[in-house]
Structures are given as C-alpha cells and as structure tokens.
Design brief:
Helices cover 43% and strands 9% of the residues. The protein has a four-stranded parallel beta sheet with strand order 4-6-3-5, with no helix packed on it. A two-stranded parallel ribbon has the order 1-2. It is elongated.
C-alpha cells in the first residue's frame, strides 16, 4: 500500500492499531521506505482523521446496507467539485473551489471496513468491479484509488493544513469540530431526557448520521453550539426551579 502511494505522489500515511512487531518492515515497499518509516501509528479512527474535513470509506457494495452517499471511483472528481463548492454555488466553474482536506479510509485485508467505521465517513467510495469477484486486495485498491486521485495532475504538492482550509465560515468543518458538536448534542439529549431509551453509543450514531447528511459548514456549527448552550441553560433553570 505504501509503495502504491509513493508511485502516485502521496506520502501522508496513518495506520490505526497496526501489528507492532512487523508493520514498519519495508522489504516489499521498494521506493517507499521513508514513507513507511514516517507513517503515523494511532489507536483510534478519530486520531487518524480529526484534522480532515472529508472522510471517504472504501468498500464493496455487495451484501452491504449503506447509509452514506455512494461514489463510484470514475465519478470522484465530480463528487469532489460538488463538496468543495460553497453553499449556493454548486455549479461553480471547475477548479475555482478550495478542495477539502481529505482522508481515504481502507479496511484491513481480512475484514475490510465494518459498518461502525463506515458510519463515521461522509461518503462511501467504491471501485466498479465484476460481480463475480468484487473484493480487491488492499494494496491493489490503494493503487487504483491513488491513480484516480492523481490522474490529470502533473505533480501533487504538499497537503494544505486544516487551518488553511478552515478560515472561511462556509468551509467544511473538520472531523474534530463535528465530533465536539455531536458530544454537545448528546449532552443536550441527556439533560432533556430525550431518546433516553437508547444507549449513548446509539444516540451518538444517530447524531453523526444526521450531521453528515446535513453537510454542515463551520458557520452552522457556531450557530448550533450557541443554540445548544441556550437550551442547556434553560433546561438547567427549569430543573432548579422544581
């Protein structure tokens, strides 16, 4: 996978809970040794993608119930243009929009991505394959996706930081910013005794799913945080009034 990334000019590799004794071995990563040695190892998906504004999860679509927009790899450029467009300007001329800082999430060779991880993705990216053999080897999937991302670009420069991309109020929020809002909403649910029959994890899943469907911008998060603080203050006042 690292070698495939290096082939097409990518270098930012993050590995979630790798098998420590061997994952930095570079025997099969000819030309990508530095990439492997510089890769970050983290212990949660949040830590891997918190600074990203768009997360695409990769999977085959067979025998899966997907609750996310489905993007076929050949249609990737069109999808990214739509995402990057500012509100009310979805038909902006190609190349005029600032691309979001993005992560492409690949599952393990053995099991792929579970629904738990796909639920944290903004969209699902799939490679059109024959129905007789839909599953791809991990490194092959990485190579095909990296090729499509780099196609038509002479040289890929360094990734822009989330700070550079998030200065404007209509920019996409990072995963970390959305996660803070999800937790704020869950606290409001708890204070108002709303959906109390659901465990916190299920409440959180519903909130995530809703926010990703809404395609929120940073200005929306600021407004919602203010509204939630107001609601929590009101609920707290009613509780003390009793």
């Amino acid at each position: 996978a690292a070698r495939a990334m290096a082939n097409f000019g990518f270098s930012d590799l993050v590995v979630v809970k790798p098998y420590a004794p061997v994952w930095r071995e570079t025997l099969s990563a000819v030309g990508a040794e530095k990439l492997v040695l510089a890769a970050r190892a983290v212990f949660s998906l949040d830590a891997a993608v918190d600074d990203c504004q768009l997360v695409l999860g990769t999977t085959t679509t067979q025998n899966r119930t997907l609750r996310r927009p489905l993007v076929k790899l050949p249609n990737l450029d069109r999808f990214l243009e739509t995402v990057a467009a500012r509100p009310g300007k979805e038909k902006a001329r190609r190349g005029t929009n600032v691309p979001p800082r993005m992560a492409v999430l690949f599952g393990s060779e053995k099991t792929g991505l579970s629904n738990r991880y796909l639920d944290r993705c903004h969209a699902v990216l799939t490679v059109p394959t024959t129905g007789k053999c839909p599953s791809m080897n991990l490194s092959q999937a990485v190579a095909v996706c990296c090729y499509e991302f780099s196609r038509g670009r002479k040289e890929l420069g360094p990734s822009a930081s989330s700070g550079d991309l998030g200065r404007h109020r209509d920019a996409l929020p990072t995963v970390e910013e959305t996660r803070r809002l999800v937790e704020h909403v869950r606290r409001a649910f708890e204070a108002a005794d709303f959906l109390s029959f659901l465990p916190p994890r299920e409440q959180e899943k519903k909130i995530w799913r809703t926010f990703l469907q809404w395609k929120l911008r940073r200005a929306d998060l600021a407004l919602l945080h203010g509204f939630l603080r107001f609601i929590l203050k009101k609920v707290s006042g009613l509780s003390h009034g009793k």
